[in-house]
Amino acid sequence: MKKYIINGGKPLKGEVTISGAKNAVVGMIPATILADSPCTLENVPDIADVKLMIDILHKLGAEAYYKAPGVLYIDPTHINKTCVPKKLAEKMRASYYFVGALLSKHKAARAALPGGCSISEAGRGVDMHVTAFKALGAEVKIKENESACQQEQTDVQSQEQNSSDKKIDKSEGTIIAKATELRGAPIAFEKPSVGATINTMLCACKAKGLTTIRNAAKEPHIVDVANFLNTMGAKIRGAGTDEIRITGVDSLKGSTYTVIPDQIEAGTYMIMAAATKGDVLIKNVIPRHMECLTTKLVEMGVGVELMDSGIGEEDGVDDTIRVYYKGRPKATDIVAVPYPGFPTDLQAPTAALLTIADGTSTVTETIWSSRFGYTTELMKMGADIYVSNDNKTAQIRGVDTLTSPNPPMLKATDLRAGAAMIIAGLMTEGTTEITEIYHVERGYEKLIEKINAMGGDIRKEG
To answer: For the chain, what is the domain count?
Structure first.
């Protein structure tokens, strides 16, 4: 059994450099399918989700490999399959982006229902994705009881010729989409959805005419994926606003593009510095992406300073955040909402810090259901937390200190819950062990090396 072992109670001091954004690159890798020539992505994090994406590309027939650390080369011109294997798709939620990209380029796609963390998007699932694909002219079916992808060895041409309703009906637990032609359409989401917004952009890039996405998600990685597509020749306007307009083009070309820094990784280390009574420079960040978290940390009494590292093309531009301890943090309330509000992916890490804040805090989750599973683990360390019956709010009454669990084992229930467990272990005297760490490895590059370089004590066993 693989696990992290943390000897806590050591203030983190020094600096940490933030890697490329996971949530952006998992949209960009499927986007390369749309190109008629090779693409190169720079600042790609070495994480499990990226490795899975590369495995999927290989299964589809693409060439993908690292030219250098963090530099991923992808040649999609030899793709000859449109079926995403179940064993890969079910390991990560972002596998559904291959449906939008394959449908756009090859007019057919087939993928097992996506997996990843044991949380679900409140009231949505993949319904909004399917609605968008249908609006663009695709025929889409979903079968709920999983079965193997039966046409993994079928090439694009034969799959298009044989995608009859009779064969589609034989598949279980799979999204099956096909189209003779995709046409632009107005699409209005009932709520902003990152996944549905990116998938619609991918599918609409080559659709004839204009597609308008209203109530679009506005997260930084939405903008980054749109910018990448535009360097390939797409015509996308309005990314980062409520309305995105996409004018379809006949073809897209390969491009070289550098992924933005990871907003959530940066936030995790900001919280980690405060929780361990540390003093850390978080480098390679875009401060405006961090404003909501920065505001809350300042409200809690944490020291936060924006700085220019002096490294890079633009002098005088802040790209570093210093976070330092100024005394016991004060309680505060947070509400996880779509960007530019407080990020849902920082909800659990912030809650770990709030467990030792002075006063009572309320944490409200509006995006994902079942995202308070980590609270049970924190309570094993003496945290005082009450979760509402509807699982939408958690009331956290701060205690003076957390204590190492006895037995010392905690479980990472999902990716960001795992980050919360690590923060709790680092700020607590004694030894903490964390299991199911594959969740954490999906989204944090070189986590052990980065923490230990700042004076922490964490190792991996198993």
So the answer is: 2
* 223: DSSP letter: H
How many beta carbons lie within 10 A of that of residue 165, not counting itself? 9
Residues 390, 446 within the same domain: yes
- Active-site amino acid positions: 117
Q: For 120-273, list the strands marked E by DSSP.
A: 120-121, 139-142, 174-178, 186-188, 210-214, 235-237, 243-247, 256-258
Name 5's Cβ contacts closer than 8 Å, sequence gap at least 6.
431, 432, 433, 458, 459, 460, 461
Residues 321-350: pLDDT tens digits? Answer: 999 999 999 999 999 999 999 999 999 999
Average pLDDT of the segment spanning 14-27: 98
Domain of 349: which CATH number?
3.65.10.10
State which residues form the domain around 227.
22-258
φ, ψ of residue 225 in degrees (nearest 5): -65, -40
Contact 140, 201 (CB under 8 A): no
Tens digit of pLDDT for each residue in 293-320? Answer: 999 999 999 999 999 876 655 556 789 9
Looking at the fold, whether 37 and 141 belong to one and the same domain comes out as: yes
157 and 305, same structural domain? no
Q: Are 8 and 403 in contact (CB under 8 A)?
A: no
